[in-house]
Amino acid sequence: MSPPGTSAANCIIETRALRKQFGATVAVSDVSLNVRAGEVFGFLGPNGAGKTTTIKMLLALVEPTSGSGQLLGAPLGDKGARGRVGFLPEHFRFHDTLTATELLRFHGRLCGFEGIALEGRIERLLTRVDLADAANRPLRGYSKGMLQRVGLAQALVNEPQLVILDEPTSGLDPLGRLLVRNIIDELRADGVTVFLNSHLLGEVEATCDRVAFVKRGSIVAERGLTAADEIVDLDLRVTMAGPAIIEGLSNFGSDVRQAEPGLIRLRISSDAVPHIVNWLVEQGVMIHAVEPRRKSLEEIFLEVMGEDERPG
Amino acid sequence: MRNLITIAHLTLVEARRRRIVLAGSICALAFLAVFSIAAWFAYRELASNASVAFVERQATLTMTMLVGFLAANFLAVTFAILLPIDTLSGEIDSGVMQTLASKPVSRDEIVIGKWLGHLVLALGYLLLLCCGILGTMRVLAGFTPAGVVYALPLLMLEIALSLTIAISGGARFSTVTNAIFAVGLYGLSFVGGLVEYVGSVGDIKSLRTVGIVVSLFSPADSMWRLAGHNLMPEILRGSDALSLSASVPTPLMVWWAAGYMVVTLLLALRAFRRRSL
User: Fold this and answer.
1) Which of the residues B88, B97, B103, B106 would you substitute to probe the A interface, choosing the one with the greatest number of A C-beta atoms within 10 Å?
2) Which of A25-29, A195-199, A226-230, B70-74 has the lowest mean pLDDT?
3) Taking the domains of chain A in order of start, what are their residue ranges?
4) Beta bridge partner(s), residue A30
5) In whole angstroms, how far apart are CA A56 and each of A267, B275, B276?
6) ipTM of the complex
7) Superfamily of segment(s) A8-225
8) Residues of A with CB below 8 A from B96's CB?
9) Residue A91 and residue B95: Cβ atoms within 8 Å?
10) How many structural domains is chain B composed of?
């Protein structure tokens, strides 16, 4: 499932047929991924689809049963590569007797940072996640949202090239969510690759460049979310359109059909609309209305998952 | 090495913040206070009784000291087993380990770092108790057992071994299972020592053999018996009336216990390397 233009050289995450089986239970059956440098990649699927297990395999928290992969050009599990990765688990927890400053100092040291540079970075990060006031309070007094934000700060303490976020907005209020979204935008602007696992499709839609859909342990679809990648359903209200027109339109998109007399429906890339209009005019077709209908990520998600998928 | 020190340091900070150090210190000081008072009363009564010979008085005081060491040993073993009982399994269950193990740190460094941090605490606790007992005896009765230089390292080995078993169990089992396993193994060792003692005192070879086999399977308590033997004056060591002299493990048992600890630690590393977090 390599997207066009993806080569091994600019892949930050690359996996081939990753599989994980716990006894008789297959958690992940076949995950092949290519995540390019600098992109914000969404990893979508219902509960129990194998998203978190895939993330754990990427970070060597779980050993794959079969398959292989690379993270930042090194084999999965490489210690050096992990030093350039930031990770926020789904439910961030750490020793609750530590203060936020001590937590970040500990993780910074494990990543090889120390001294004034580390202290300065800790201060900046805590300010960035709006926890400067609570920097010297033990984590046991933190709310769920505060814990998630300090978890995000620890994921960034090593100035990572890749940030893996597993449900980063879990437990956050709308302001907290906005903060996370802004941080992801800043990471993208800095060229940091973000791998985002989230159930909140609106959030994914607003932040991700590309998404993969996971169903029962396998990737079933991948698509871009940028304007150029946008797929729309187009309704054309026309007259004087014979079978030749229908056939000609199939060159611009897929699923071309006459829904009713005078209404042609097809699926196209959004940037194809002007070309279709031009072509129809050239063919002498009278156009009464051109109605592109953009599908939300939720609609796409439901379509990809199919009717047989039940809540996880 | 740097990661080991960072993780060991976090373990020590965590123990201090969770008031484990405070609780351990209070219990140790309370024990030492009770022991000192008891020893002081024993000494005063013996000293005031002119019919008690010097040798008899010193023997009674030695027994008092051994009882103190016996209690201290039990407290320290309990501390060493309970202290790290949830350090790996608990952190895996709570999700703390996911954050830690995703950093550029090897699984081995996590286990050894935690082992080192807990070892410092457990040995500190043991030495506090032992030094308290030795200090009390020095002040009251004016003696320090000659064999203390052999006894203390043996007790330290016993503590390190008990702690290693608890850490190793945490790499494989849940916290409760690990607690049952580690306490059970020490209990087995204790019973093995008793069986060996009964076999030796009653001259029942089969019982003695069973006791030795159990001690080989779980050698922690045999280190205490060897340490206790070393704490006694030469003159009392041959006495069958004293349980510690009735069946003394051989010096080879020390090597066995040390090897047992190393293998247990290596098994912990292996289990933790393979464990899904």
Assistant:
1) B103
2) A226-230
3) 8-225, 230-300
4) A218
5) 37, 12, 9
6) 0.81
7) P-loop containing nucleotide triphosphate hydrolases (3.40.50.300)
8) 93-95
9) yes
10) 1
